[in-house]
Amino acid sequence: MNIIIDEAEHRMLQELTQRRFLVGSRLYGTTHAASDTDYLCVYRTSAEELYSGLPNMHQFQYKDKAGNTDWNYCSELQFRKNLYSGESVIHADIVLFTDYTDRKMELCRTYKVIKAYLGFARRDLKEDNGPKLWHAARSLYCASSLLDNRLPVLDEVRRIYSERQDRAQLVHQEQALRTMANSLYDAGVLKTYAIETASHPLWQKLLASNNNKAFRY
């Protein structure tokens, strides 16, 4: 869910923004005459958010109707949390298809991220609708690439959008990829989360514990 903000709040967040990324069709290179422009802006994390102890998963959005542009905002902390949790695939798309980081495979070849792509594909496959099928095929391509230890590339995304997609075939592919992801996760090959390198072994234990499936007491 997006929290709609007004122009003054939009200007405030613009001043706090550290990095700005095109998302959606402008990122993929699949625009058409009626396409709008969507940005995700990453701003400095406030002390209020950092110490609130709340999930704070929802992002801000400002709709510039005159410019046909949607401005989406998340904090640096939100970006990482939403990437790791699979809350959306927007953050994984930015990692995979922009210069956000060189650690693309490390951050995105996780159970949560792959399941996010599969989840959005399953949602889009509920309708036998051309644009929805393209979106589903793109998500399945990203999930399949990550499962195969390959980075998805934008040229292939654009090829997907140039071809007719078959819903039954995509449904079968989604089911097969979901089975593969679950098997790799159960075998310990896929981890739930990417884990950062900590400054001390004790903090490393804390971070690594997020990938424990069961604790011993």
From TrEMBL:
| Highest taxon above the source species | Bacteria
Entry protein name: Nucleotidyltransferase
What is the species of this protein? Taibaiella chishuiensis
